[in-house]
Amino acid sequence: MTNETPENPPPTPPxxxxxxxxxxxxxxxxxxxxxxxxxxxDAAVPDAAVPDAAVSGAPGxxxxxxxxxxxxxxxxxxxxxxxxxxxxxxxxxxxxxxxPNxxxxxxxxxxxxGTxxxxxxxxPQGYPVGGYPPxxxxxxxxxxxxxxxxxxxxxxxxxxxxxVLLIAAAIVVPNLLRGxxxxxxxxxxxxxxxxxxxxxxxxxxxxETYADDSLLTDEVLGASxxxxxxxxxxxxxxxxxxxxxxxxxxxxxxxxETIERDFTAYNSSEDGWLISDGLVMATLTNFDGLxxxxxxxxxxxxxxxxxxxxxxxxxGYEEFAxxxxxxxxxxxxxxxxxxxxxxxxxxxDDGAATFRSLVRTAIEECVAMKTLTxxxxxxxxxxxxxxxxxxxxSVTRTxxxxxxxxxxxxxxxxxxxxxxxVSTYDTPDVDMTLQGTKDGTTSEFEVLFxxxxxxxxxxxxxxxxxxxxx
Length: 470
Hints:
four-stranded antiparallel sheet; 7 helices; alpha+beta
């Protein structure tokens, strides 16, 4: 047996002519293996290397002897396309399936023309001997641009449509709330109708707002209608209407009281006809700090807008009340709200009694002190005693009978800059005496002038109202 190595290649098999009688060869069985002393290797040919066509009677193979034995003297077939030794096919990255006709790897044979280079175990890993032939690998073609999906396209179109609808809604919705108002008279009639129905949102769409609108709500308007319903609405057609401005006369009843007034309207290119004087401006600064509510709601500002109607005012402190015969007012024009300039908060009877009680107690505590000074005034540290020095702790103060009467009838005064702060200018008469010393001699003195009491005040906004002195 000859060792087959790259240095000692096997002898080249002789050219064997193909059998003459192919028909006769097909009459004998063939087990798919054969041997030859001149060309075959000692190793058996792997089953996977045998061509699928190596069956009994195939063209180019010798006829078989009966029983599967070779016929003596018959020529041995050598496949022209493959050497005697066959191994697994050479790996080709461009081949994705087994090809039975592909060349078979022979480690002892030179590279066949047109095939991949022979693998060299000593070459750097991943590279064949001699390198890859030019053009063996080509750059992958650029991936085609993915077309926009229908879902994305529909999403963009849908988003644009939603944006258009939102813009349209911002323009159309206010007009729907108002309804069509082709004339100034129509706008006034729809406005008064919305008020009579308690629909603040619809009503406000017909008027121009220019101040605090925190009271333009369904709740405040509903309370107004409970106090005095709006009925008997009559609106006349404007006689002096132009394309841009009109005066509309109307009459309506508020709580049974008929109101007749004119409304001024102008034509807005964006919002249609708007009523410029449809609201009532009320200034309520006289009640700052007193927790004022209007129909149960506290305004956000002391100058506020109101719908025409009836309004009840209330203060947040039980010690205070309005200096008015009533707390409910009908307001249909700005002129009606001018009465608030002449209405002030005053102490209730209970509030006045609380004030007098607090002040009396504070005064009596001060009068009882023997010191030259007190928290409520009556300071006599600088009194002239004809050369005598006042003795601290020797002062006696006594409220006169007239003073007692004053304490009983003190008139509280509300500070209008701070309405919760109440004071009085009525202070009681107090007699005072004290001692003075000179050259070791002590004498009694009566105070005829000086030592006046300060002004007492009570701030009812404090959690526990107390008396302070100014």
